[in-house]
Design a protein that fits this description.
By secondary structure, the chain is α/β, with parallel strands linked by helices. The protein folds into two domains: 249 residues, TIM Barrel; 51 residues, no CATH class. The protein contains 15 helices and nine strands. The chain is globular and about 50 Å long.
Amino acid sequence: MGQQQKSVVDMSGMILDRDCWRAYLGGFAEYAPDYFFTFGQRLSLSAGIDPLEFAAVAERDPETALDLLLASEFFDFDLDAHAARLRADGVRRQVIHSSMRLLPGGGMVNDRIAEFGAKYPDLLVPWGSVNLADPRAAIAELHRCVGELGMKGVSVTHFLDVADPLSEGADEFYSEVEALGVPLWVHNGHNLSRRVPVDWCCWRQLDVIASRHPDLVLIAGHGGWPWVLETIALCQRHPNVYLEFSTHRPRHMARSGSGWEPLFAHGASTVRHKILFGSVEWVHGMTVGELVAEFGGLDVSPRVLDAWLHDNGARLLGLD
């Protein structure tokens, strides 16, 4: 990375306090247990717990496993310390994603994430989350998040909701997002939940959504992997489709056979202006700064890195 590397715009941050973690992971335990086991074992490493112990407890009683995990000091959350670290890492803005789950003491995760954003409006950009299993409720929550809580975007995870991405109700929801003029982040690509097919919402569905709603800004979350080439094609085809590659570690992406070859080929040329950096730090136990530094070691030009790590996100958020 060149010495003049700009500050960073992180389009996929996830910062949760202990109550939010309980709601977030509890949702996976209830609706997508495959993810609960996978995420729980990954978080066990950070929490100083034997992943095999967590898995054994989770097999018997997911709620007890969640208690075991959340008892760790790892889940102590200090918003001020997080903000200070982001600034030290050169982060200009971090989009913080949410969950539509209920908090243990009342209210929703959306409310808590909005509070985080309100405390640091010049750094944190809160986006709401909805459950498309009930499109009418999703539309109501969308308007609450944007109109009442001041959130600047919204995200959906169709596989978790077991919601058809192309249903009539979902289409009405997309129309509402389009009318509000806020971006929609979509969990795109494969999923680990055996309740739905692996391609429940991938490039094919996103193509239909983008065609029906040309003014809707769509962000293909997690890059659409393993269908990266097809997702790149959507970025070429639709003016308002973007690719965001959070949860994938740079050095792994650069390996031959990773499936990310199209990103380094076309993301450096025809769709350079459509690629967005996202972190979700806890997935690899790496900070934004560490992930950005790892990108600096790859064979990517400073001009392209500037676009991926800052310029495209800044433009999408209306910063420049």
